[in-house]
Design goal:
single chain, 171 residues, two-stranded antiparallel sheet, two-stranded antiparallel ribbon, 6 strands, rod-shaped
């Protein structure tokens, strides 16, 4: 025990050099580990942000393409459906249901008239007293009659789910 105390409290020059070397080695390893951690953290953060941006841009492009396709369909129906189309209800509903059946991402396609009549491809009933002229999509389309418009998201009166509508005044 005496030798241990003497070696500990009265080290030789060799032991002092060895302890100094070990201390420098430990400090440099800790510093190197910290720097490596910070570099890896920054690189991972940059990679995650880049990946999220790419995913977001890809999703935005898909949504834009899908919305454009739907706007083109609305443009077509706005020119194809006229006041004369309202005279043959069965044919009008068949046209609406055909498009609705061919489009998996469309909740429904519908027409609201200036008299408040509502034609829809859906079999879901609307609330009693439903007047399409009071809906945001109808008002927005009336405000911009020459182009297809997209509403802000709102709760659908038939499904009670969030939706957007692409609308255009018919010819």
């Amino acid at each position: 025990m005496k030798k241990f105390r003497q070696a500990l409290f009265n080290p030789s020059l060799g032991r002092k050099l060895l302890l100094s070397f070990c201390a420098v080695l430990v400090i440099s390893l800790v510093a190197s580990s910290f720097v490596s951690y910070e570099i890896a953290k920054r690189a991972l953060s940059t990679e995650l942000i880049g990946s999220a941006t790419l995913s977001s841009n890809t999703l935005s492009s898909v949504v834009d393409n899908d919305m454009q396709r739907n706007m083109d369909a609305v443009d077509y129906f706005a020119t194809a459906i006229t006041e004369q189309s309202y005279n043959d209800r069965a044919e009008l509903l068949e046209r609406l249901r055909t498009y609705d059946g061919a489009s998996s991402n469309v909740e429904g396609i519908y027409v609201g008239t200036t008299q408040g009549v509502f034609y829809t491809s859906s079999d879901k009933p609307n609330p009693p007293g439903y007047d399409p002229r009071e809906r945001p999509w109808y008002k927005l389309a009336e405000a911009s009659p020459d182009k297809a418009v997209i509403t802000s998201p709102y709760v659908s009166s038939s499904t009670q789910e969030m939706t957007v509508t692409i609308a255009k005044v018919t010819d």
